[in-house]
Amino acid sequence: MSDKRKVAVLVSGGVDSAVVTHQLSLDPTIDPHLFYIRIGMDGDGGDCSAEEDIEMCSLIASRYHLPFDVVSLHEEYWDNVMKYALDTVRQGLTPNPDIMCNSIIKFGYFEERWGHEFDATATGHYADVITDGEGLKWLGTAVDPVKDQTDFLARISYKQLSHLMFPLGPMPKSEVRRIAMEAHLPNALRRDSQGICFLGKINYNEFIRRHLGERPGPIIDIATGHKLGEHRGFWFHTIGQRKGLGLSGGPWFVVRKNVADNVIYVSRGYDTELQYGRTLHLAEMHFITKDPWGAAADTEEGVEISFKNRHTPEFAAGRIRRVPGTEHEYIIDSYEKIQGIAPGQFAAVYDKERTRCYGSGIISGAKQA
Questions:
Q1: Which of 48, 57, 197, 357 is catalytic?
Q2: CB 40 within 8 A of CB 49
Q3: Distance (Å, rounded) from C-alpha 10 to C-alpha 163?
Q4: Which residues contact 355 (CB under 8 A, 6 or more apart)?
Q5: Fold entry, domain 5-124+167-182
Q6: Residue 37 pairs with which residues in a beta bridge?
């Protein structure tokens, strides 16, 4: 009987998961089994790259003589992730399908149906798993700050984290590309995916248009009240957005939305105060491992942290405190002005050293004194 660790490897057809496969196949203590999660689009036009991805994954599996299965989570994806995304957009909020996709699909349903049969599940995410002196596991940031994806993992559970491996966490992207080139992997030069989780090459606005349609409305200069143009529906725009407004004389930024009247308000210039804020109200705060602050977060001064309110290489610094009388509501007071605080988005919260991601909360947009 083999004493090798059985590892389920989630592959996508991209270079990152291919390098993970390469690295694990070289480890004599690991027995990898490749899986591609297919959600399909039932003629919706979004799964156009799936066949190409699966073919690439098959090539990698054949190259290393590894078992490879394509598994379907189509209904689960649409009933959960895309329903959440469309409902959030319809409310005028900004969703993050990638975060929900990771916690519900990749590390939720996949683990329940296939992953649990293995000793661990490995992915090509740029993240790390840190084990402390008490044996507790924490989500750690990647060496490469540009590629770090811990903000996309900030909603997973402790059980999920405990079963995960992130072999690329200690590597910069340049090293991953170098390994792929030296190993002559067929996708060594393939471009990284920029789309929403599992949506393939479909255009995001086209996806929204297909499901929510269009509803023309005015774009208003918030400073003057003058109408500058028209938009095709508030759901195509998010707070902090600059591109795609079709306005001259800019730059113009979306600073507010009136959902009831279908009005988009914009502000001109890179440094207008209307684009910025220092306070983020977080609802439904989720801790991956445990609450790291305890009573310290109940004080008026709170606890010093780092955070991200969008997917970016840069961290912001500030203090976090719990809203009195609540269990899962927190306030982040940022040391610096934050651009584009978008209700509905997730704010990922880190220690002040930026090495551990503690979890995340949903930006609510509530006003706080």
A1: 197
A2: no
A3: 13
A4: 130, 140, 141
A5: Rossmann fold (3.40.50)
A6: 71
Position 349: which residue type? V
69 touches 35 (CB < 8 A): yes
The residue annotated as part of the active site, out of 48, 57, 101, 357, is 101
Render 35-73 in DSSP notation, one character per residue: EEEE---TTSS--TTHHHHHHHHHHHHHHTT--EEEEE-
What confidence tier does 50 reach under pLDDT thresholds 50, 70, 90?
Answer: confident
Tokens representing 328 are: 């899962």
Is 266:247 a contact under the CB 8 Å cutoff?
Answer: yes
Based on the residue annotation, tell me whether 48 is a catalytic residue of this protein: no
The single residue listed with the structure tokens 């999660």 is: 37
Task: Read off the pLDDT of residues 243-300 as tens digits, 9 standing for 90 and up.
Answer: 889 898 878 999 889 999 999 999 988 766 666 789 999 999 999 999 999 999 999 9
State residue 21 phi and psi, 5-degree precision: -60, -45
Does 357 qualify as catalytic in the annotation? no
Instruction: Write down the architecture of domain 276-363 according to CATH.
Output: Beta Barrel (2.40)
- CATH number for the domain running over 214-268: 2.30.30.280
Give residue-wise pLDDT tens across range 73-121: 989 998 998 889 899 999 988 888 889 999 999 999 999 999 999 999 9
Query: How far apart are the C-alpha atoms of 312 and 291, rounded to whole Å?
Result: 24
Rounded to an integer, the average pLDDT of 178-191 is: 89
Domain ranges of the chain: 5-124+167-182, 214-268, 276-363
